[in-house]
Amino acid sequence: MGEQPAPRRPGPSVRLRLALSYAGFLVVAGVLIVAVVWVFLLRYVPDRATTISLDPAPGSGGRAPQLFVPGRYDLWRAFAPRVAQALLVLLVLGLAGGWLLAGRMVAPLTRMREVSRRVAAGSLHERVALPGRGDELTDLADAFDAMLTRLEDLLDEQRRFAANASHELRTPLATTRALLEVAAADPDRDTDRLLERLREVNDRAVDLTEALLLLARADQRAVAPEPVDLSLAAEQAAEVLLPLAERRGVAVEVAGEPVHALGSPVLLLQLVTNLVHNAVVHNLPAGGTATVTTRADGARAVVTVENTGEVLGADRVATLVEPFQRGQGRHFSDHGGSGLGLAIVRSIVRTHDGTLRLDALPGGGLRVVVELPGVPGLRDGD
What we know:
Layout: H1 14-40, E1 50-53, E2 66-69, H2 72-120, H3 136-185, H4 191-219, E3 226-229, H5 230-240, H6 242-247, E4 251-256, E5 260-263, H7 265-281, E6 289-297, E7 300-307, H8 314-317, H9 341-351, E8 355-360, E9 366-373
Parallel strand pairs: 4-6
Antiparallel strand pairs: 1-2, 3-5, 6-7, 7-9, 8-9
Helix pairs in contact: 1-2, 2-3, 3-4, 4-9, 5-7, 7-9
């Protein structure tokens, strides 16, 4: 588990800081207006007040009227209180209006915070579902919801997988214990046969554990993509599985054209190997065929694996990609598979942004079609 973040000292809220910013902006704008007036208007006013004597008007008895012209300081004394009042009003309006506007702006963030707290408490079904037109905040809320959906799906899949895995791993352990108990109660036990049976059960448990680890790695989407020749991977898989196919009387055929997909060489080889292995072990009754075909379909690389076998219903085909779902039932020792082959294929396909399709063949058997992103501009044989 990751380290918990250190507790933070309480600070002013984003809403308060935005409101103070709005108010500060208005006050600064008001001060700049006053400065413009002072610099560009009052510079034409003399520094000191003056009194100008005018010519006496007729009939005034010779008294000359005087005109008082205020100086710059006199005008500022009259103007400054009004400026202060106006700036105070701007400050109050800026705080009040800024508080309201900031409240509307941070409301989506507050909503996301509350949803994240409920999700952290265990309510993974919670969503922000922010209404309104598209902008930065709605985009953030939509991305947050998408992340929650992905997280909920992964956790649900993990719970199901852990339940199935614990059930399947319990089987070889119980089998081992039963073999040991029977051997302990039998004075005429065959030690060599017991060791052989224990080795078989142990090998099956190791294979299952390795398949679980591969499935977990495939689900992590940590793939360094590079061109992979799927036709070559099909030939390698057929060569590796040839002894198994011969023991089961299954003929494996590889055909098609060289085609390259973009992905992880290790995972894509495992994908093809699992498909061929699935086609061989589920090819009942014995004596059938398994065909692997590769081809290019526009910008996609396609791998098709077909095998003969029993007729499968559509409802049964839909469950084959689930972990531990086997064509002949959920039994640990029925055919040597771990029950994770097609589940691993599905995870690898999903990791490579491909598609997986399973179709039951009318005459019996299964067709599996995998489409993966091809390599643009790469010619066959490159």
